[in-house]
Structure formats: structure tokens, C-alpha cells
Design goal:
Blueprint: E1 12-13, E2 25-27, E3 34-39, E4 47-51, H1 52-64
Antiparallel strand pairs: 1-2, 2-3, 3-4
Length: 76
């Protein structure tokens, strides 16, 4: 697996994050092929890097309610 240099990316808090300091997810839109995601409470901690198309699919599934508690994922 190759590494991605994230030292100069701009992070933004997800609109789904809680403004009271909980569930704070940050993403960066600076890279064309990769979408890095991190916990804003630990900005120097681990980062998950999603392929851009996988990220688009994930966000679409969240917005449509496919990933609600109790839902069943039938294909990946």
C-alpha cells in the first residue's frame, strides 16, 4: 500500500458531525483519487483513505438511509 502525503490538505468537518464536540468526522476534498477521513478530536491520529468512487457510494448510501441501524447490506 502506498502512502498519501496529507501534510498540506485542508480538512472540513462533516455536516453530519455533532456541533457539541461528539462524533466529529473531518474529510478533505483536496485529492482527486482519494478522500481522507479522520476523527477531529485526534487530528494527528489515524486517517482512513477511501477511493473517490467508494466515498461517493458511501455518502450516497448514508444520505438515502441504506445504512440505518437494522438495515441489511446485500452487496459490496
Amino acid at each position: 500500500m502506498r502512502s498519501v502525503d496529507l501534510t498540506s490538505v485542508t480538512w472540513r468537518k462533516s455536516s453530519y458531525s455533532n456541533q457539541d464536540g461528539g462524533q466529529c468526522v473531518e474529510v478533505s476534498d483536496d485529492l482527486a483519487a482519494v478522500v481522507p477521513v479522520r476523527d477531529s478530536k485526534t487530528p494527528h491520529g489515524p486517517v482512513l483513505a477511501f477511493g473517490a468512487s467508494g466515498w461517493v457510494s458511501f455518502v450516497s448510501a448514508v444520505k438515502s438511509g441504506e445504512l440505518r441501524e437494522g438495515s441489511c447490506v446485500t452487496s459490496i
